[in-house]
Request: fold
Amino acid sequence: MDESNRIIVAGGGPAGLITALALAQQDIPVLMLETQPIPVDHRRATTFHPPTLEYLRQLGAVDSVIENGRITPIWQFRDRKEGLVAEFDLAAIKDETDYPYRVQYEQMNLNKVLYRMLDDYDHVDIRFGHEVLSADQDADGAWVQVKTPDGEQTLSGLFVVGADGARSNVRRALGIGFEGFTYEEKIVQYGTHFDIGAALPDVSGVAYISDPDEWCVLLHLPEYWRISFSSRDGEDDETALRDDVAEARMAAFLGQSGATVALQRSIWRIHQRVADDFRKGRIALVGDAAHINSPMGGMGMNSGVHDAVNLAEKLGQIWRSEADDSILDRYSRQRRHVALEDVRQQTIRNTKFLNEKDPAARRASQDAMRAAAEDPEKRRAFLMGSSMLAGLRAANAME
Ligand SMILES: Cc1cc2nc3c(=O)[nH]c(=O)nc-3n(C[C@H](O)[C@H](O)[C@H](O)COP(=O)(O)OP(=O)(O)OC[C@H]3O[C@@H](n4cnc5c(N)ncnc54)[C@H](O)[C@@H]3O)c2cc1C
Reply:
C-alpha cells in the first residue's frame, strides 16, 4: 500500500468502519487501526433511524440490518404510573423515506457485517491490537504514533480520521476541546427473555417511560427485551447489577415476578459533549470522538454514521483532486451543526421528559408530547426531527 496516498482511520467502531468502507468503495487505500485485539461485542446502540438505513443501502450494508433486525414503526412516550402519553407511527412520513420505521439491531452485529465487507478490499489494511497514541501532520501528510504488539511505530498517510470513540486520543492530540456536561444519574441496563409484550400488552417495541423516581426505557430486540432504568441514589454499580436486585427492579416495574437477566447487564454514564472543531488540517473527527449525547432517542451511532458518509465523500473529492481541503471546514460546519442544534436539543428534551422531577414541568413536557402526537402537522414535524431526516437534510444543505 502506498503510504503517501492512504487514509488512516483510528478506531474500528461503527463510525470508523463506515468511513473505511465508504473510502474503500471509492478505491481509496485505507489503513484502519483498532486498539482491541479482536472486534468487541458492545451492547450499546440498537436503534437505526431511516436516513441511516438509506446510507447503509447506498453502501450495500442494509440487507442484514433489515433481515435480522426488528422493524419498529411505532414508538411511545409513557408515564410509569399513568401509561401512554403519546404514540408516534413513522408511517406518517412514508412519503419522505423508503424506510418509515426504526430498526432495532445491535451495533455489534453491524460491526461484524462491516468487518466482513472490508475484508473483500485488497486496498484496506486492518490492524487489530494497534492503539493510536497521538496524531500529527505537516503540509503534505499526517501520521499517527501507534502502540503495536511489536512496539511503538509511526504510521503515515495523506489524512487521518479520528474514529477512536469518546476518549479519542486523536482529539486530545489536536488539542480540541470537548465541552458539555455529564448527567448525575447513570443508566442501568438489563436484558431479559421475559415476554414483556405479554405482560404490558399496549407497550410498543420502543417506549420511553418517565418517572420522577425511576424512569425506564424498553427496547424490543430480535432476541430479547432490553430494560434500562435510571440509577438509584446511593446504590453502587456492583449492587445494581446483582441478579436479585435486577429481578426485583424488573418485578416492581412489570407488576409481576419472573423476569431474569439474560444476555446483558451493564451500567453507562450519560454525557452531552461536542468537540470545538471536527477538523484540524489533515485530521478530522467522526462519531463519538466528535460528539457524545444521551442515548434517549437513539442518535449517537446514527449521527456517527452520517458523519462518516459525509467525511468520506469529501475526502474522496480531495483525493481525486476535485476539491481542495477547505471542504473539510464544510464537513465540520455541517456535522457540528447537527450535533449542537439537532441531536443535542432532541436528546436533552427526551432525557428531561424521562427524569423531570418538578410536577408542573413534567406535566408541561407530557402535554407537549401529546400535542405533537395529536396534531397532524406537528406530528409530521416531530417525526421528521426524531427520525433525524430533517436535521440531516438541513445540515447537508449548509455551505
Ligand atoms: C447504553 C447506550 C445505548 C446506546 N444506544 C444507541 C442507539 O440506540 N442508537 C444510536 O445511534 N446510538 C446509541 N448509543 C451511542 C452509540 O453506542 C455510540 O454513539 C457509537 O458506539 C459511536 O460509534 P463510534 O464508532 O464513534 O465509537 P465506538 O463505538 O466507541 O468505537 C470506537 C472504536 O475505537 C477503538 N479505539 C478507542 N481508542 C482507540 C485508540 N486510541 N486507537 C485505536 N482504536 C481505538 C475502540 O476499541 C472502538 O472499537 C448508545 C450508547 C450507549 C452507551
Q: What stands out?
A: Residues 7-70+105-179+271-355 form a domain with the FAD/NAD(P)-binding domain fold (CATH 3.50.50.60). The first helix runs from residue 14 to 24. The mean pLDDT is 97.
